[in-house]
Amino acid sequence: MRSTFRLLGLTVALSVAGAAGAADQRRAEDIVNGKCGLCHGVQGESASRSFPRLAGQHAEYLAKQLADFKAGKRYGTTMNDMAADLSPEEMKALAAYFAGKKVGPQKVDDADLAAVGRYLYHKGNEYAQMPACATCHGAQGLGSPQLPRLAGQQANYTVSQLKQFGRRERTNDNAIMHSIASKLTELEARALAEYIAGLDG
After folding, report:
1. Among positive and negative, which fits the CA dihedral 105, 150, 171, 31?
2. Which residues pair with 125 in a beta bridge?
3. Which domains does the chain have, with CATH numbers?
4. CB neighbour list of residue 112: distance below 8 Å, 6 or more residues apart
5. Residue 151 to residues 35, 56, 66, 70: CA-CA distances in angstroms?
6. What is the largest CA-CA distance in the chain?
7. pLDDT at residue number 138
8. How far apart, in whole angstroms, are the C-alpha atoms of residue 55 and residue 40?
9. What is the DSSP secondary-structure string of 117-168?
């Protein structure tokens, strides 16, 4: 009898969790269609090379960035206004929505430049005491729940973020990235961005 009650309780719990998950998904879709899709695309593919691709990004990382935008820890973009009225639950739902979208590599526009980026990404620059990007973000650019997936990211967006880190204009996740990005030349930043865009993690 006890095992029957336990099974019934588990079934009810799973049913409630499934209903909650479906509600979160619907809420995320509503927000994406009303706000996010304009710049980031409904599938997270980005409407412009200046906007980040969100498809396939780690849910935990995305939720943190939204929270940082809302709290003003990361500022200077329209995202502060976009995140202002989002609840923690909505942030998690949006993050899960975009994390579940498929993502692939971008077309590499300059193979020679990407080759320079490949060297820097995997080996760093010992002359500037710059470590390899792969050390933290992984050989395939997949990142982790705490560090962003880089593979397939828009090259223009990557360059803009490297510049912001280098100038300490990006105020969150800045400690390590400032010391790295501040060592990059314009050519190196663009080379890295070109290589990263073509990664198929």
Report:
1. positive
2. 130
3. 2-99 (1.10.760.10), 111-197 (1.10.760.10)
4. none
5. 25, 9, 20, 26
6. 71
7. 98
8. 9
9. HHHHHHH-BTTTTB--THHHH-TTS---SSS---TT--HHHHHHHHHHHHTT
Q: Which long-range contacts (CB under 8 A, 24 or more apart) does 145-149 make?
A: 145/58, 145/59, 145/60, 145/61, 146/60, 146/61, 147/58, 147/61, 148/57, 148/58, 148/61, 149/56, 149/57, 149/58, 149/61, 149/103, 149/201
Q: How far apart are CA 101 and CA 107, in angstroms?
A: 19
CB 27 within 8 A of CB 92: no
Rounded to an integer, what distance in angstroms lies between the CA atom of residue 192 and that of residue 159?
A: 8
- Which of 81, 90, 70 is CA-nearest to residue 26? 90
pLDDT one-digit tens code per residue, 124-181: 999 999 999 999 999 999 999 999 999 999 999 999 999 999 999 998 988 899 999 9
Q: Could you write out the DSSP letters of every residue in 65-102?
A: HHHHHHHTSS-SSTHHHHHTT--HHHHHHHHHHHHTS-
**Could you tell me if 120 and 133 are in contact, meaning their C-beta atoms sit under 8 angstroms apart?**
yes
Give the total residue count for the chain. 201
Low-confidence ranges of the chain (pLDDT < 70): 1-20
